[in-house]
Design a protein that fits this description.
This protein has about 240 residues and is an alpha/beta fold. The protein is built from ten helices and ten strands. The strands form two sheets. A six-stranded mixed sheet has the order 6-7-8-3-9-10, with helices on both faces. The protein has a four-stranded antiparallel sheet with strand order 2-1-4-5, covered by helices on one side.
Length: about 240
């Protein structure tokens, strides 16, 4: 079973303490929202989970294997993948070639054509198969979001972190991302969604984590967390309390 154990994570940048003993677990194909005001530590937490940053103290275990000491490519190979708030496609490669990259990273001795059928299925699911021969730089912002999701599917991670997947996305493409999230979760993957779109978070999430100035102040059912006085004060605002 998929498991992620985040144990007492601290992160300091000089004299600034950004994370303050964050602890939580993921067990199985959970669908989790991660929210918090600007400066709460969401990006730092994500960068520690994917190996881009090392914690000042604490540990992270993925499926029983310690990953907080690993470089990002090893974390991806271990089974944790992410998207970025600002998309990072290989702009001078075609859409199809972009999908080959993660597959080849997982299987370096293979040839790109061995993954063509899988890549075409992914592109069809994301409704961008007609763009397979276009250079990534020619895609719209929303299409680049879909391409990044496609690369994650090719990576086939156990846990996926989606960083602001709906930012700047046309409503029609948002529906495709919704279906992506549901399908991947139904296929047994755990998903963490970071978003400032509260409607999206409360629609999709089955569990909510709330960070505030480096502290994990809530962890639980979204309907309960939404009414937590500490969360209302830190993030959601007085209007949420009055609903």
């Amino acid at each position: 079973m998929i498991s992620l154990q985040v144990n007492n994570i601290y992160k300091n940048f000089g004299g600034l303490q950004v994370l303050k003993g964050v602890t939580f677990e993921i067990n199985g194909p959970e669908l989790i929202g991660l929210i918090g005001p600007n400066g709460a530590g969401k990006t730092t937490m994500t960068n520690i989970l994917d190996g881009a940053l090392k914690p000042s103290s604490g540990t992270v275990y993925l499926n029983g294997r310690r990953i907080d000491t690993l470089p990002p490519y090893s974390v991806a190979q271990a089974g944790l993948g992410r998207t970025f708030q600002v998309t990072r496609a290989f702009r001078r490669m075609t859409v199809l070639e972009n999908l080959y990259v993660p597959a080849l990273a997982m299987s370096p001795s293979s040839r790109p054509q061995e993954f063509r059928e899988q890549a075409m299925e992914v592109l069809a699911f994301l409704t961008i198969d007609h763009l397979r021969n276009e250079f990534a730089r020619a895609l719209s912002g929303g299409q680049q979001k879909l391409l990044e999701l496609g690369r994650l599917l090719m990576l086939n991670p156990d846990i996926i972190i989606l960083d602001e997947p709906f930012a700047g996305v046309h409503p029609r493409l948002m529906e495709v991302i919704y279906q992506y999230i549901y399908k991947v979760n139904d296929d047994g993957k755990a998903i963490i969604i970071i978003s400032h779109d509260m409607d999206t978070i409360f629609t999709l999430s089955k569990r909510l984590l709330v960070l505030n100035y480096g502290d994990l102040i809530a962890d639980g059912d979204p309907d309960i967390v939404k009414r937590d006085p500490a969360v209302i004060e830190a993030y959601l605002g007085q209007d949420e309390e009055e609903e």
